[in-house]
Amino acid sequence: MIRDARVLRAGFVPREVEHRDAEVNHLSSVLEPITNGEPADTAIVTGPSGTGKTCISQFVTERLREEVLDVEATYVNCWRNYTRYRTLYQILDDFGETIDIHRQSTPHDELIDRLQQYDGPRTVIILDEVDQLEDPGVIYDLHSLPQFAVICIANKEEDLFSRVDDRLVSRLRSSEHVRMDKYHDEQLHDILAARVKGGLDQDVITTNQLDRIADAAAGDARLAIGILRTAASKADRESRERITDDILLNAAEDARAQIKQKNLDSLIPHQRVVYDVVREHGPLGPSEIYDHYKRKVDDPRTKRTIRTYLSKMTQYNVLEAEGTSRDREYSLVDSTAPSVTQ
Ligand SMILES: Nc1ncnc2c1ncn2[C@@H]1O[C@H](COP(=O)(O)OP(=O)(O)OP(=O)(O)O)[C@@H](O)[C@H]1O
């Protein structure tokens, strides 16, 4: 059943990407100057979850590294490394420049100095989930260092811009912006078909079944691949020769639950408090959520930050938002979302 399990993993970067030629070309052209040893513009890549932001950014930087000897790439997930310090540390660590840095006592300026003095190859720095940074000033730090090209990945431009100061907003507004929309069903079908070809035995799934997975995934390639993975591994465990419709029926729900659990596990402590407030008292509007949240923590973040957390958690299907932007209420997601139809 499964020939190459890597191909079905969420973080897999394929040798060819489907239906993103314009975005690949756009991003490549933004980074192009770095191949001639010149500074490149910062690129901002935005779009809903599962639209290929990370995959396309990694694909483009990999291709660049194949073409040019003196270019490297480094990747930081800013959700996991959500402080300015952690992000800078992570980059330096990838460069092998952290041996004598003491996380507790080395000042932040020292990390910037190190990056400034870094004389390795020109490097593309991918800052994924950049809207999760507590202090987005790190974008400014990197923006001003010409030996690095920066790709900032976020779900929504507004969430990123609402939290940075005017100086950075004006810089970022003049940056190149690559937008990714949700995939159409036919596009998801092609993404799935490529994974099937690379990872599964022949004839284990029909074209019609792939169409139904694409339909249930509603434009989200992460979910589509997750459903395929869940179904294939169940069929494999049960030693079936094919993925049956019965297996597919539960696969969407299982894949969604797995992704949701992973997103829940990724919440940083303050987001977790916000989530718990909604779990205990929801549905609630942002102001009520903020009041509850403030009572629960010693060092509350600003109301604006909490709004971006709510937006993020909604994008990642941990919370559900209903109502207009003026009158919005948040609750936990309803787990009875669409499944793969028979
Ligand atoms: N155009 C594409 N061609 C092939 N595979 C793709 C394409 N777009 C996305 N994928 C695959 O779909 C999955 C999700 O993509 P990716 O992680 O890049 O989405 P994202 O927009 O960064 O999502 P999130 O905001 O949730 O991090 C990955 O396994 C990726 O390899």
From TrEMBL:
<dbReference type="InterPro" id="IPR049945">
    <property type="entry name" value="AAA_22"/>
</dbReference>
<comment type="similarity">
    <text>Belongs to the CDC6/cdc18 family.</text>
</comment>
<comment type="function">
    <text>Involved in regulation of DNA replication.</text>
</comment>
<protein>
    <submittedName>
        <fullName>Cdc6/Cdc18 family protein</fullName>
    </submittedName>
</protein>
<dbReference type="Pfam" id="PF13401">
    <property type="entry name" value="AAA_22"/>
</dbReference>
<keyword id="KW-0235">DNA replication</keyword>
<dbReference type="InterPro" id="IPR050311">
    <property type="entry name" value="ORC1/CDC6"/>
</dbReference>
<dbReference type="InterPro" id="IPR014277">
    <property type="entry name" value="Orc1/Cdc6_arc"/>
</dbReference>
<dbReference type="GO" id="GO:0005524">
    <property type="term" value="F:ATP binding"/>
</dbReference>
<keyword id="KW-0547">Nucleotide-binding</keyword>
<dbReference type="InterPro" id="IPR027417">
    <property type="entry name" value="P-loop_NTPase"/>
</dbReference>
<dbReference type="GO" id="GO:0006260">
    <property type="term" value="P:DNA replication"/>
</dbReference>
<dbReference type="InterPro" id="IPR003593">
    <property type="entry name" value="AAA+_ATPase"/>
</dbReference>
<dbReference type="InterPro" id="IPR055237">
    <property type="entry name" value="Cdc6_lid"/>
</dbReference>
<feature type="domain" description="AAA+ ATPase">
    <location>
        <begin position="39"/>
        <end position="184"/>
    </location>
</feature>
<keyword id="KW-0067">ATP-binding</keyword>
<dbReference type="Pfam" id="PF22703">
    <property type="entry name" value="Cdc6_lid"/>
</dbReference>
